[in-house]
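Complex record, two chains
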Amino acid sequence: MLTPLKRIIKFGWQNLTRNGGSVTATCFIMVLTISLATSLFLLDLSSKFVISKIEEKADISVYFKSDVQEEEILKVKDEISKFSSEVKSIEYVSKETALDQFTKRYEENPLIVESLKALGFNPLLASLNIRAADPGNYEKIASFLETSSFSDLIDHQNYLKTKGVIERIFSLTSRTNQAGFILSIIVAILAVLVTFNTIRLAIYNRREEISIQRLVGASNWFIRGPFIVQGIFAGIFSAIISLLITVGVCYFLSPKIEILFSGLNVWRYLISNFFTIILIQLITGIGLGIISSAIAVRKYLKV
Amino acid sequence: MINFQNIAKTFPPSQPGSQPTAALEDVSFEVKEKEFISIVGRSGAGKTTLLRLLLAEEKPTQGRIFFDGQDVHKIKKSKLPNFRRRIGTVFQDYKLLPSKTAYENVAYAMEVIGKSDAEISRDVPVVLNIVGLTDRANNFPQELSGGEKQRVAIARALIHRPEVILADEPTGNLDPYHALDIIRLLQKINEIGTTVILATHNKEIINNLGKRVITLEGGKIIRDEKRGRFIL
């Protein structure tokens, strides 16, 4: 049992080392495919990151009338947090804090600060900043605030203003995910077709050899095996080359990407997902190799 | 042991409109165990077709071929390798594996039937020495001359000690000296009990053998003599 297996592996390795031209072509296509799979994985991670960053910035601010007392506002805060798990966090901003933040923001514009001082009182309103766990929930929270018992305490809320932005983020998120998914499927199909055809051509060139092996009395598996082993080896090689390319590209592009999308460090992503990426590349490579050579050899075994 | 019964083989026309080619017509003969039989005839007489039919590489248009009582063309595809291992074939066009060296080509016939590595490294050098190719063992077929390729093919056909050896023009590319060696080798193998079927158009060899000769002409057997001579 072991001897034939050993021989099949030996023949597969010989096939690989003695047919440089066609193997290079196969590996080249495989590297393209594997790199595509890897970049789709990295792209998915990055888009999730960017979206979550934008989502974090979205919120609803509820401004209370100037005569509403702090205790009452805190009570409302408790009400809202009890409302549902959809609320991620609520932050209370008192009139004084709001004033501090305002003066700090306009530090460099003395005219505004001066005119505020000239006013003689604090015109800013106390507010609650509400963040939802999911951008789709802002609508619900907004309507809850409008219909609740404490709606007459509220001066205004900025939901309608941010509504457009929130909705755009929301549709962008789902659309990116959909597009990414469809794109990955199309690319995967194309890649399998191209790899399959390259391997099929390589085997077509050796159909004479296959028929000789049949005439000498080799069993199907003794003929088919080496081709599949060759496919596996080609897959492993391609995965290693792709890994080197991925590491290289991420290392050199990471600083530039970090400038473009603040806080997105592709290099760190790569390192923290290193084993997932190796696994994706090996599985893609070996899978392509096995499937393509198995299908292609079948065709020429009919002697 | 081998029985050809009313074999006919017609190849379909190669171009539309042309006539189909009849390669063999009503060929019947029997080969006994341990027999040495020569099939002679001009090129195109049907010698190679006959051997291809025996190997189940082609199906006859008519008739049946029995090997040890079994209809060769009723052997299941999965059992075909086992059947072919019982026959060692020297092909007219050598049919060597181009990506394997001379040594590996010969070893392949043993690897296919699952011989151990020890047996392979013991037998292959011996057989290569017999056919005079010890020096060329590590060369690929494209680096060998026609005669050398032919001798590799012969070594491969002998190495696993098959019950029958089919030799299709095994001396076609050899000089008289090597040709005689190969025929002597086939005779020796026959003496130790292997059935040999030799297809050739080498008059001298046939006349010196003094064995059974079947003469084919235009796809038909025109002569079948116990101690035949080359007459065309």
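Note: Residues 1 and 32 of chain B are 5 Å apart (CA to CA).
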